[in-house]
Design goal:
This protein is mainly alpha-helical. The chain has two domains: 2-301, no CATH class; 330-384. 81% of the residues lie in helices and 0% in strands. The protein has eleven helices and no strands. Helix 6 packs antiparallel against helix 8 (131-207) and helix 8 (131-207) runs antiparallel to helix 9 (212-324). The longest helix has 113 residues, at 212-324. The radius of gyration is 59 Å and the shape is elongated.
């Protein structure tokens, strides 16, 4: 509501167009054809044209400066309003909200809802949620996000609708001022023609006398004509700017309408369709779970029957085998006899190896004893040698 009021305040005073319907159609046709020649004034526009010509006072050269300034000021005002309207438009935010909705829906991976997927041992150990419970939880989160996004889209849709209406008013006002510029251009051209054909020849005739004042007035009236000619040229440039602004307004309107249609399609088709498909997926998953439970029960019954039959067969075979066995197995007796023989052989071998080891140890003891005796005798003989033996000189030791 506040946005609508601000739009109405922004474009106040531009609701009614002063252009006759016939002229409006001609002007729009000329704009589409990019014609440089404006439509001829209608009889009901002659009064506006006469007032525009009266603004030109040949006695006041400053009147040329302000000729058409009212229309130009209005054009500048309407252009600024159009720029502010474009700056304040929230279409970018609306597009961002649409992107968020698409991202939210794409982020919801239905492939994760795999009925055949089973939790691993570590997922069970960590207490991970079953696929259906996790799916429903994520669905609730995404549904809340979509509700918020849908509310934002409704708000942007209302804003864009208000903008389209305001741009209609802007277009009508701009077209009105565009026509006023054309009337000023027509008035300026008529005044130039009047100057060339009537007024300037009179001044030229008066200047033929050679009087200084007459010559000066002729020079001034010619300067006035040149100023007016330049002023009409400036008005033509302003008309060109206004001509470019009109299709720009329509282009902005078309973009807004396209975005409004896209938002409406999203709210009416995309979101309900997504929720419908999601509900079907959850129902199918639950049906699959029920079928799986029935299958598991049937499989368990068959498995119990098979296990009982196998257990009976194994038990019967074991009992019969034990009944047919003797008290001692012949294989066990043979193995015990072989073990006893091996034990006796091991004893004889160990005794023989012990005898050889003792003989080798005795020989080693005798060698050690003899070596010890020789060492004791050598030490004793060295002690009995005379101690007064003189030491030979160093030179003699070297010769030896």
């Amino acid at each position: 509501m506040e946005t609508k009021k601000s739009e109405e305040a922004q474009y106040a005073g531009m609701n009614e167009s002063t252009i006759p319907a016939a002229v409006k159609e001609q002007v729009e046709t000329a704009i589409e054809a990019k014609s440089e020649q404006p439509p001829a004034p209608l009889p009901e526009e002659e009064e506006q044209l006469r007032k525009a010509m009266e603004e030109i006072d040949i006695k006041d050269r400053s009147s040329v400066i302000y000729f058409g300034s009212k229309a130009q000021e209005k054009l500048d005002e309407i252009s600024n309003r159009m720029i502010n309207g474009v700056k304040n438009k929230d279409t970018g935010a609306a597009g961002e909200v649409l992107n968020k909705m698409v991202a939210a829906i794409r982020g919801f991976d239905i492939d994760e809802l795999n009925p055949n997927k089973k939790l691993s041992w570590w997922e069970k150990l960590l207490g991970k949620t079953q696929p259906l419970a996790l799916f429903i939880q994520k669905y609730e989160e995404v549904r809340d996000q979509l509700d918020l996004i849908a509310n934002d889209l409704e708000r942007h849709k209302a804003q864009l609708t208000a903008d389209v209406i305001a741009l209609d008013k802007l277009y009508e006002a701009n077209l009105d001022y565009f026509r006023q510029l054309e009337l000023y251009i027509e008035a300026g051209e008529r005044k130039l023609k009047e100057l060339e054909e009537q007024i300037i020849p009179e001044y030229e005739k008066a200047a033929e006398s050679g009087e200084m004042m007459a010559v000066q007035e002729l020079r001034e009236i010619r300067g006035f004509r040149d100023d007016l000619e330049r002023r009409v040229h400036d008005l033509r440039l302003s008309r060109q700017v206004a001509m470019q602004a009109l299709p720009s307004i329509r282009l902005i309107q078309e973009n807004d309408k396209s975005l409004i249609n896209k938002i409406s399609s999203t709210l009416v088709n995309t979101v309900p369709l997504w929720r419908n498909q999601l509900a079907q997926t959850v129902t199918i998953f639950r049906s699959h779970e029920a079928a799986g439970a029935i299958k598991e029960a049937a499989d368990l019954t068959n498995e119990l029957l098979e296990r009982n039959a196998e257990g009976l067969r194994e038990a019967n075979a074991e009992v019969r085998r034990q009944m047919e066995r003797g008290i001692f197995d012949i294989e066990s007796i043979k193995k015990a006899n072989q073990t006893l023989i091996a034990t006796l052989n091991d004893s004889m071998q160990i005794a023989e190896e012990g005898k050889k080891a003792r003989e080798a140890a005795l020989s080693e003891l005798q060698k050690s004893e003899q070596a010890l005796k020789e060492a004791i005798l050598a030490v004793k003989a060295k002690r009995e040698e005379p101690t007064n033996v003189s030491t030979p000189p160093a030179g003699e030791i070297e010769r030896k």
